[in-house]
Amino acid sequence: MENMIAFVQYIALIAVGAERVTDILKRAYLEKKNVNSSVYQLITFTCGVVLSVIQPPEFKIFNFDPLVVHVIVGLAVSGSSSVWHDALSALNNFSKTIKATAELQSATAESTKS
Q1: What is the distance between the alpha carbons of residues 25 and 10, in angstroms, rounded to a whole number?
Q2: pLDDT tens across 11-46, in order?
Q3: Containing domain of residue 65, as a range?
Q4: pTM of the predicted protein model
């Protein structure tokens, strides 16, 4: 569970960075031209890959080759950072629920022994 949370945290962080760079490029250069919206996703993908190369994840992702990991990160980032923030929130809540349930079961087991 911890690796999954770390993965989503990493993607969310890279997604925010890639979206900021894309937004800067959009405002500076692309807004004045009639550009297809898919170009923005391509730019966000590229920024995600570059940021992943600059700061690779510090954990193993399915024992994939680093190049594959960078492409996966780029593809994941090209969606939306809000999706990853929502996923991270859900995973954190799920993790807390699992821990609370384990503590409750442990406390219940101890009280029945007494």
Answers
A1: 23
A2: 888 988 998 998 898 888 887 788 887 888 899 999
A3: 2-113
A4: 0.68
